Amino acid sequence: MSSFGKNIKINIFGESHGTAIGVVIEGLKPGYELQMDSIQKMLDRRRPGKDRYVTRRDEGDIPEILSGVYNGKTTGMPLCAIIRNKDTRSNDYGNLRRIPRPGHSDYTAYIKYNGFNDIRGGGAFSGRLTAPLVFAGAIAIGMLEEKNIKVVSHMRTMGTVADDYLNSMIHDKTQSESILLNRIPMINKESSESAEHALNTARMDLDSLGSSIETAVYNLPAGVGEPGYDSLESIISRICFGVPGVKGIEFGKGFSLAAMKGSESNDPFYYDNGEVKTRTNNMGGILGGISNGMPLVFTVCMKPTSSISRPQESIDLETKTGAELVIKGRHDPCIGIRAVPVIEACAALAVLDNLMEEK
User: Fold this and answer.
1) Hey, which of 132, 215, 317, 324 has its CA 20 to 30 A from 291?
2) What does the CA dihedral 356, 357, 358, 359 come to, rounded to 10 degrees?
3) pLDDT digit string (tens) for the chain, length 359 residues
């Protein structure tokens, strides 16, 4: 399944080393003016080849719109956009048909698709497919900002390095600006510098680092979402787990709630000039699957990059014997760095789809 959404529906297509990757977006209202500069800035945050902290694959990630836009504005018809793949080195992946990468989808894809899957660069399982997701998410962010709804993400942790938490009560513009200014997308400059050091150490050790990404959606009104299996948590979780490398998610205090008492975890209500608010936001702005008017806060866990340069133990699927794998190619030492705008895109698309459901 490569589609998501009911009211704003996206369908992602393509493979990492194919001619192009892309997205079809249905449900956009006619007459919405695309802010291409803002869309490109968000794509650039995810783009590979920027510095030594990300894969050296150098792609421009310039979107080409094929349909659904006329004179810079949406027509109301499905919007189709592609991003061409140019800097591919498919020979680096030749041995992965036989010898799957530990921690990667090579083996499960081989079984699922009887060996017919495109192995180059991970094919349809590659993080490369998040570029069209970010394109769609950037449009959603622009539409949410018209309603004064802000989406902010940062790296909460990289390895053992921890950043400050996002403000869970109000939108802090200073935090948002700091994330974009720091080389590693964190709020605290010292944390960003410590993360750089940890990442360099891992790179020199031919290894990779895991991470977590915290996201907050500010100014979301109360009453958005559904109870049960279409809860706001369920919808956000579904799109986030479609991002390669995501292995966990929590809302508000999440798993820390297991060690708390009800008197500690409950968020007391109060009136602020007639507006209902809570004193704390341990629940992450969601009660019963529905937004309560406080910032929606969640955190995803990103696994360490599977493709590391160390020799690893694996198997040979042809000879059915054990084999040592040495991975070639260009890979991110920490996938969380470029995943920050991806998770922002996920949050924006899920929230926008739910807002349209309310209408």
Assistant:
1) 132
2) 50
3) 789 999 999 999 999 888 899 999 999 999 999 999 999 999 999 987 566 666 665 677 899 999 999 999 999 999 999 999 986 666 666 678 889 999 999 999 999 999 888 888 788 888 899 999 999 999 999 999 999 999 999 999 999 999 999 999 999 999 999 999 999 999 999 999 999 999 999 988 999 999 999 999 999 999 999 999 999 999 999 999 999 999 999 999 999 999 999 999 999 999 999 999 999 999 999 999 999 999 999 999 999 998 888 899 999 999 999 999 988 766 788 999 999 999 999 999 999 999 998 76
Q: Return the closest-CA partner of residue 153 out of 131, 128, 134.
A: 134
252: tokens are 């508000």
Residue 199 to residue 155: CA distance in whole angstroms? 13
Rounded to whole angstroms, what are the CA distances from 195 to 143, 159, 199, 247, 267?
A: 33, 8, 6, 21, 33
The CA distance from 301 to 346, in Å, is 14
DSSP 204-268: HTT----EEEEEEEESPPTT-B-SGGG-HHHHHHHHHTTSTTEEEEEETTGGGGGGS-HHHH---
pTM, full prediction:
0.94
Specify the CATH number for the domain of residue 27.
3.60.150.10
User: Per-residue b/e over 66-98, b at no fewer than 16 CB within 10 Å?
Assistant: eebbeeeebeeeebbbbbbbeebeeebbebbeb
- Positive or negative torsion for Cα 157, 162, 164, 169: positive
List strands edge to edge, sheet with 9-14. Answer: 3-4, 9-14, 20-26, 79-84, 64-67
Q: Are 72 and 30 in contact (CB under 8 A)?
A: no
Domain that holds residue 64: 3-358
Distances (CA, A) of 246 to 42, 229, 342, 346: 20, 20, 11, 12
Strand partners, 248: 301
Helix (H) or strand (E) run with residue 143 in it: helix 130-145
